Each structure stands twice: as structure tokens, then as C-alpha cells.
């Protein structure tokens, strides 16, 4: 057996992939443009967060929560947010927290802008679904660390490669849930839209997307949580934030600071999760 | 029943085959094989097999059949929600198969609207916004479309729920909204796909009555799909019966009941055919009776006015039928100041006895303009039979205005 296996030459898979990445690297101009673009979104978020005084930021988060839940107030969440954010301030993690928030928001935004149209395409075209499904599976199951290597080669060190890796890892749920939401719109509603003479765009914006909204928002929520789970990994290639604190604590075998930073991530995760979930609920005029 | 009928919708050779091997299926169908044989040989399902019919302007045309008969496929080919495999649909002489997507949208927006079995209302929109949908996609401005939608909601008798959402309303109410949404476009043709089938029996009857009311005012051309013969008999001006993708018979309710085209139709109507068990006494109604020994022209005229009829039945004190008098003749007598009705009594009145099954009367009833008088064995007048009451009774309604 051994001799048979030994006689088959090893497939140079790693070599091929290296060649492919090397080939990609020659399009420096293109990747620089993307880096600048993503970087400027990231910087814009960060600029805003740095501008707002901490006390005002906390007030704004509480006000936003209050507004989103205006028909069914969740006092527990408000108290949690208040105490949680105070704790982050007190632990001196504020800037790290806003950096992490920036990374999550930027990558979620990009995942949304790319993912929703892809999901729509997938729902409308059988061919697109057949092609995209295995790609999505691949994106989601490939260990996220692996993305860091080409990301560094193409986008350098810092926030941007971290965001790119997060987008790749976090986008699939948005695509999938958009696709599913649109496919699950009852046939009769599609027929109703068609029978009154809707154009394809009218059908999409007036019938399909509004009805798929719950499912679509669940996808956005999942994407956001997945990109938050990337922050520690992204810190390995220089994406600053709470992840960096955890990463350093691991290096120094510093359980105390590691857990403290981890707790701050948990607080941020719970706030983001509850806020996007509240947005998911169908709201009525009265 | 109208004297001049113009054709609104004409369907020629309309065919739909689902699945693969469509050409082979077509070939087999031409050779006279039926749906089951074609499915077995080719795997293709024949939805509708060469349907031909005409629908006249302003009539309610009921397409009837059991599930799988192809009726829903057929109605969806009329607005091309389902693309026909073959054949053509002409609306006002315009061939719908030859127009492009944009023109088709215009036809759907302006000429015909559809009402769905499970209402097809958008759950995220209020009642008013649902009723506005058809106008909204045409780009009608907010004020105009709101006004038209409100009018349509009024027409179907559901105002005051504008800001509710569909799931806050009962099934009957939701379907009224579905109907209002269709009417808001002011279409010439209404396609109603099993529109009342999802409703409970009481609501269904209400909606049928309301549809007839609305039709009286608006005179749309209505294509109504149903699996319920009672419903078809009640609301249809003409009925088309389908079985296994084929059209079996087209005709008025009376035609269908009196001359079923084949055993299938016969069997079909047997389940609901009350004509064999109902007798004259079941369907007769109370006539306006004038006792000639007591009443003169003035009283006769008042009685006829009160009950809004133009004919009264004349009897003697023992209630024996003598004949009928016509309102015009009575008015003449009143003018001439003649106090005796005898001179104007018409004695030629068709009669029947109480136990005659209405299946025997159907033909004669549809041909005579004077309602049948029902008399007992002592020649006493018991009641009269009007055509509407017969059809109503066949359709399962109680004849309510009899003592």
C-alpha cells in the first residue's frame, strides 16, 4: 500500500495557491484602491466615535435602544447597557471598544451591501444559486485564520485586512437568509403582485423585500455576530481593538486582563445583538 | 338574457402542458389520449387541453370543476400568469399572446384584476394600503389613489378598517379587501380564483350575495372559478364544467341542470341536484291574491303596489283559482270607474299540483313568462313558482317568503 501511495506524486496544491496569490499581488493598484476605500469607511466611523464624549455616547446608545423598543420597552436591556458601558469606561477599554465597534460596523456594512444583492440574485436565478451555494459553504467553513495570510499579502497590515477577512467570514448568513426570505414569499403574493401589473423592481421593493425583511434582518444579525467573533483573530494582523488586548494577554499568560477584555467584547456583543434583533421585529403604525 | 351580447373574452384552443416532452404530449393529446395516459407515457402533465369558449360582456362566467381539472391553470392563462403552451386569448379582439411584456403589464393594470383564494393580501400593509396597491404601481398620486381605494372599500362594505392590518380581520373581511383591491383599478374584467372557497359557509353566502349586488351596479365581466356547483348555480350567468383538463359543457345553469352533456355532469349535479327531490310545494312562494268577491280594482291595485308586483292571482271565497289580472288592466278599470274585475281576468294560467317534482317543471318554467300556479286537489291556490325561486332552491337556498 505504502509503495503504491508513494509512487503517486503529491499534488502541489499549496504551490498552486501560492502562485495564484503571487499572481494577484501584481494588481497592486487595484488592491490599494480597495484598501483606501475600506480604510476611509473605517476612519470615518472611528472619527465620529472619537469625536463623541464618552458620557454622550452612552446617552446616545440608551436613547437609540429606547427609540427602537418604543412600543415595548425593555428596561433590563437599558440597565445592562448603562452598567456595561460604564464598566468598559472604568476598565479603560473605551478606545479599544470603539475600534472594535468600528471594525464590526464596517465589515457588517460591506457584508450587507454585497450580501443582500447576492442573496436577491440567488433567489431569482437558479444558476446563481447552484454556483453560489458551494462558495458560501467554503467561505464559512474554511478556518478563519487562513484568510489572514492572503489578506496580509494583498492589503498589508492593519484594520483593512482584518475587515476583509471578517467580511469573507461573516457575509454568508446575510446572503443565505436574503435568498431564503425571498424564496419563502408565498406564491399567491407573487401572483398578486404580477396580476396587478407590477414591474420586477416594484415586485422586489414593494412585496418581496418587505416580506423577507424578518429573515433578512436575522441574516444581518448573524453576520454582525460572526464579524465580532473575528476581532481577536484580526488582531493578529494588526487590527486594533479589544481583540488586541485579548491577544496580548494570551502572549503574556495574563488571565486577568484577558478576561477583562473578553468581558468587554461580550458586553458589546450583547448590545449589538439585542439592538439588531429589536430592529428585526415587524413594527406597526399603531 | 340580454338581447345583444358582445364577446369580451374569447379563448381559442388554449392548452397548457407542464413538464418535459411537451411535443410528444401534444401529439398524444391530438390522438385522443386522456390526461392519465399522457402522464404515463411522457411524464408530462396536461393542465388544460384545447379549451374553446367565449365570455360575453357583463356576464358572470363560472368555470367549474374538481381539483386537478385545470380550472385554476385556465384562469391564470387568461392574464398570462401562466404562459400557455398553445392557443390564444382574445380580449376585446386583441390577442394577448402577441403582446410584449410592457403591453401585458398595461392590460393587467387597466383591464383585468384578480382575486385570490387565500386573499393574497400583503401582511405588512394596512387595509387601505393594500387596496391602493394596484393604483400605486401605476404611479397614481397618493391623494387620488387613497380616494379610489376608499371608494372601493365602501363598495364592498368595509369602511372604517383603513388602518388595520390584514391579520386583524376575519377571512370574510379580508376577502372583501381582496375584492376592493381588484375593484380600485376599475378593471373591465375580474378574475376570481376560488375567491370564496376559503370562507365558512355563512360568510360565503354573504359574499356571493354581495358579489351579485356589486355586479348589478358595476356590470363587470366576471370570470369565477369554483368547485362548488351550488355556488356556480347561484351566481353564474353561464357555467363551464371542466374535467381532467378538458371542457365538458358550457351553458346556462338551466341548460346544465336540464341537459347535462354526459354522465360525468349528470353525476356531478346529482350530488347537489335537488330537482329530483324538491317538489312544487318546496319552492312556491306566496302570490298576491285578490278575492274577486270582496275586492274591486282599487283594492287590487293597492295590494299589487304594496307587494310590488304587476300580476295578481284572482280567487273566489273558497280560494279557488280563477285566473290572473294585469296591473295595466286594473289601472284602466280604475280610470273607467268600473268596479268589477271579472272582465279583465285572464284565465289561461299554467298550473301544477303540489307534489310535482321540479325536475319535471324546469323546462316549462324557463319558457313561460307567467309564474306557475300551484293548486291542490280541491283546485285551491296554494302558491306560485317563479324562476328565481326554483334556481335558488336548487342552489340550496331556503325559500324564505312562504308562510
TrEMBL record, chain A:
GO cellular component: ATP-binding cassette (ABC) transporter complex
InterPro entries attached to this UniProt entry: MetI-like, MetI-like_sf
GO biological process: choline transport; glycine betaine transport
Record carries keyword Membrane: yes
Keywords attached to this entry: Cell membrane, Membrane, Transmembrane, Transmembrane helix, Transport
One Pfam family in the UniProt entry: BPD_transp_1
Domain spans labelled ABC transmembrane type-1: 97-276
A single MF term (Gene Ontology): carnitine transmembrane transporter activity
Subcellular location: Cell membrane; Membrane
Transmembrane segment boundaries: 20-39, 51-69, 75-94, 101-124, 144-170, 223-243, 255-275
CDD domains listed in its UniProt record: TM_PBP2
Bilayer topology annotation: Multi-pass membrane protein
Family: Belongs to the binding-protein-dependent transport system permease family.
Protein name listed in UniProt: Glycine betaine carnitine ABC transporter, membrane-spanning subunit
